Structures are given as C-alpha cells and as structure tokens.
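Recall that a protein's primary structure is simply its ordered list of amino acids. Everything else, from secondary elements to tertiary packing, is in principle encoded there. The following example makes that idea concrete.
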Amino acid sequence: MSAERAERAVPPPAGQPRVPGHAVSVLDLPGPVAGRAPSFGRGSGRPRLSSWTPLLLVDSSGTLLGALVVPGAPRYPLLIAFLALCVIGLNRQASLYDTSAVRGVLDELPAVCGRVVVGWAVIAAVSPLRPLPMTVLVTACAVHCLVACVGRGAVHGHRRRVLQHRPRPALVVGPVPVAMRVATALQRCPDCGVRPVGIVGDAPETALDTGEGPVLPVLTTGEEAHRALIQNSVETVLVVGPATRVQKASLLRDLAGAGCALWELDADAPSFDVPAVRARAGHLAGFSSRLLCEGAGRRRDSVGKRMLDVVLSGTLLLLAGPVLLMCALVLRAVEGPGVVFRQERIGKDGRPFTMLKFRTHRPASAHESATRWSVADEQHMSRFCHFLRRTSLDELLQLWNVFRGDMSLVGPRPERPYFVAKFSQAHPGYPARHRMRTGITGLAQIHGLRGDTSIEDRCRFDNAYIDNWSLWQDVCILVRTAALFLRPTGS
C-alpha cells in the first residue's frame, strides 16, 4: 500500500513518533507550554458567536405588526411576505445581521429605519395598497420601525450581558510589546466582551504577565497558535497594525480558514492618510477596529443547513424505523446482545462525541477498536454483517446523531481521536476539516473516497466542500448519495 494511504493496522499510540511540521493534533496535545497559564478549555462553557436568527425574527415581527395596522392587509399574505423579504434583503446587504461585534440600537437606528421606509415605499408604489391614505402607511411604517428598533435593542442588550459574563477568547497577533499593551487594555475593559488568551509574536519569551489578569503565553509558531485556537475555542483574532497583515499573512489565512473572525486594531495614534476601508469599522476598548475577515466557520453551519438536517433526519428516522428494528432483531439473533456500537469520534472544532452504528464486528479489545483502521475484509463477520456493511445500513443509526446535532447529513466524515492525531501530523490540511460539523456523507464519499483510500485526497475534497459550501451543494450530495446507497463499497 502506498505511503499516502491509510494503514489497516496501526501501531499503538505510544510508539507513534511526532512528525514535525505545521499540522496540529486536535486531541493528542502535548503538555502546556512552559510558564503559560492553564487553558480556558472547552469546559469553560463559553457561548458560541451569536446567531443572527433573533434579529431575523425581530425584523419579521416588525413587518407583521406594521402590516396589521393597514386595513385589509391580512388579505394579502404574499404582499406581507414580499415586504419582509425586501426589508431583510436590504438589512442583509447593509450587514445588519452581523454578530461579530456588539452594536448599540442607536448606532443602527438610521440604517434600520431607512430600509424599513424604502420597503414600505416600494409596497405603496406597486401594490393594491396605493389607494390608502398616507397617514395609514406612515403609521404602519412607524410601527414597523418601532418594533424593529426595540427588538434589536433587546437582542443586542442580551448579547452584551452574555459577553460581559462570558467574554469571547481571542488571540492578539502582532509585535509583542504592542500586542501586550492591547491585551492589557482589553483586560482592563471587561465590558468589551473579548478576553485575550494568548499573544502570537516573534519574541522568544514564553509568557507575559500583564498585571491585569492571567499570564498570557507568547506563541511563536503556527503550530502553537493552532493548538491555542483549538484548546481555547478561539473564534476572534485581533491583528495589531497593518504591517502584521503582511508579516503574518500565511498564519492569518490559516486562522481565517479555521473559522476565526479577523479584526485589525489601530494600537498607535490615528493616521489621517489611511484610505477609506470598505470593511465594517468600529472600536474595541477604545481601539479603532476594522473587520478583515468574517470568519469562515460561522457561516458554514447556517440555519438553513441545520433545518435541513433536522427535517430530513427526523423524517428518515420515522420512515426507517421498521428497517432499524428489523436489523436490530436479526443482529440480536445472529450476534447476541449488544447490537448498537458506540465509539468516540471527533466532530466540529475538535469536540468529541459518541457516534452510533450497528455492531458488525467485535474487536478483541478497546485498544484495537480505537486504533485498528479497517475491518472491511474481516473473515469472521457473518453474512448479515457483511450485508449491513456493503449496503451501509449499519450507518443508519447516525441519523440520531444528526437529529441531536452531533453531526450533519453532509460534511467530512468523523474519525477516532487516535487517527485524528495521526493524520493531523501527516497531512497539514487535516485539522481544517473540523471547521464544519462532520457528516454521514460528503463530497469525498460520493467521489469514492471511503474505506482504504487516500487520506490526502479526502482532506482535499473535504476542505473544498467547506470552502465552497452552499445549501444547494448539500442537496446535490444527498441526491448522489441516495443513488449510490446500495452500492457494495463498504465503509
């Protein structure tokens, strides 16, 4: 077998040499860097970056309540829906659903009200509501604006309170003295909603004591930065100074690809000859800030993708219920007790979860289960177990993982912790697969990359899927998977 293909049997983890390079192990992390503070790890209970769904519901409610002011408007539900879509589209174009920064309702008031007025003007010009008195339309528009602004104020206030209690971990990238000054200022300003957990620079120091909070580690390599990102669930990166964008361009691209939102902070005196930047601007703890990158990971698990997962997995669980029951009964009769196989796999952002399958083989030990690559050609499997594996019916229980939110219908296939560590060291693109929720099927699988196939090829297809994700692409992959479902390829 070629060197780039996965082994069928892998030596124990203790005998696995560490491969130097830029790749980072997601699970098998070495001890803490000397002198660094304890990690604010996954157990901190930090909230994920907020969804834009509450803001969408607020704008939709404003449209509905404004329309109720107009006599006869309920007779035109399509007209109300068109108004809502018009306002939501205008708001989206103006980035009013951006949740990468905490805004105030007064800051948004002109933009929100202006777009509501434009939406009602369009409706008044092209709809059956044209004969209505101007006072009625103005009142409806005013109610719409009031509900939208009050609702957005409540949403932003809630987000601000959450971030004050549990601020977002962030990495500060730039020259160490300047980055330390920025980190110290952020620690003195807990209301900003950002908590520095490390500084990425070129200095040889191992840790910095800002005097305001925990000792901050200085990370000098890309591997250390990625490890800190995973251990602390970092989604915000603060870039200090435009020169850093050039000096750390490669690392910043990698961090953005891992789902981080990149903000550039002006730590020095303001410069009046800087050309206007089209990216959204604001301030963070008094530092002027500009959004450089939205954070690729946040848009990957969109509301539409999750809704598709819930609806399809719930429907398929109901429809496949008799098939699942029959498979369980036959397995119980043929193989004995323990028809469900539970195994730890690594999901989005390196978080472990328990994946479910029908048990088609019984490993000799837990170590063999965790480190043996493939049993597709196991001679001791019964005919029924071979049938389950050839038809992929043993994977049907993962619909429950999808329904729970551990997995998605479409995404990179999840792997065991040992192999995640091994492949992350051997293939630089492997850790980036964890930007998105793992799936039952994916772009790699419909191109035949299952079982004993190239891990490098899988990485390339999985990352291409994430980089070019769309809901329609998910639908196409599901259709192609359904066509291949009974193909005897094994898993």
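Confidence is low (pLDDT under 50) at residues 1-49, 271-280, 296-300. Residues 309 and 376 are 28 Å apart (CA to CA).
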